[in-house]
Write a structure and sequence with these properties.
Number of domains: 2
Oligomer: single chain
Shape: globular
Strand content: 25-35%
CATH architecture of the largest domain: 3-Layer(aba) Sandwich
Order of helices and strands: HEHEHEEEEHEEHEEEEHEEEE
Largest sheet: 7 strands, mixed
Number of strands: 16
Structural class: alpha/beta
Number of helices: 6
CATH class of the largest domain: Alpha Beta
Distance between the termini: 26 Å
CATH topology of the largest domain: Rossmann fold
Strand order of the largest sheet: 3-2-1-4-7-15-16
Length: 223
């Protein structure tokens, strides 16, 4: 957790007065929101868009002002985590269940700063199962179509019931093995009726900040 915290606090340094900031979801983004809350108490003036109910509640707790989407056109900077980052900065996201909202916010952002610990770095994506958000209606058929693409999809559970996203959808965690063609797979998945979106974030990250177990933090360069 310490490596996540130092990466998150480094990312928070990019935030300047007057910015509209996207707040990611998950354990790493938690630390970034906490640090931004501390900076707000010290006089930083920002407004934010949250990617989940969880992040929205945390932002309120630490004193960060939130904006509705109706009041913005672009977001200056978003800080978020990732479940996996490859050498070209393609990402797998969605382990925390907020991939759709995270992608909407990321796509509206001038900068997307990704914060991870060193365990999330990979030569190619695929060790972490790819989350695919699907609508409830006909989800059994959607899962069969995912299987035909070569995936081993598992419907995410919360206790004895299917996990529900903030949007009221299901998530199928898809084991593809190594993902060599992330852009092509992203497009193919999103053409399946019943798929809302998937956790591949291709060509969206502008910075990747990595926290290491030895206590160091580094902004890495794209291969």
């Amino acid at each position: 957790m310490e490596s996540k915290r130092i990466a998150a606090e480094k990312a928070a340094e990019f935030v300047k007065d007057g910015m509209i900031v996207g707040l990611g979801t998950g354990s790493t983004a938690y630390f970034a929101i906490q640090k931004l809350g501390q900076r707000v108490k010290e006089g930083l003036s920002i407004k934010a868009i949250a990617t989940s109910k969880q992040s929205e509640e945390l932002a309120k707790e630490v004193g960060i002002s939130l904006l509705p989407f109706a009041e913005i056109e672009t977001i200056d900077l978003t800080i978020d985590g990732a479940d996996e980052v490859d050498e070209e900065w393609n990402l797998i996201k969605g382990g925390g269940g907020a991939l759709l909202r995270e992608k909407i916010v990321a796509s509206a952002s001038k900068q997307l700063i990704i914060i991870v610990d060193e365990s999330k770095l990979a030569r190619q994506l695929g060790a972490f199962p790819l989350p695919v958000e699907i609508v409830q209606f006909g989800h059994e058929l959607t899962i069969k179509k995912l299987r035909k693409l070569g995936a081993d999809p598992v419907l995410r559970q919360a206790g004895n019931e299917p996990y529900l996203t903030d949007n009221g959808n299901y998530i199928a965690d898809c084991h593809f093995g190594t993902i060599a063609q992330a852009k092509e797979l992203h497009q193919t998945l999103n053409l399946i009726p019943g798929v809302v979106d998937n956790g591949l974030f291709v060509g969206m990250a502008t910075h990747v900040i990595v926290g290491y177990q030895d206590g160091t933090v580094q902004e890495i360069l794209k291969s």
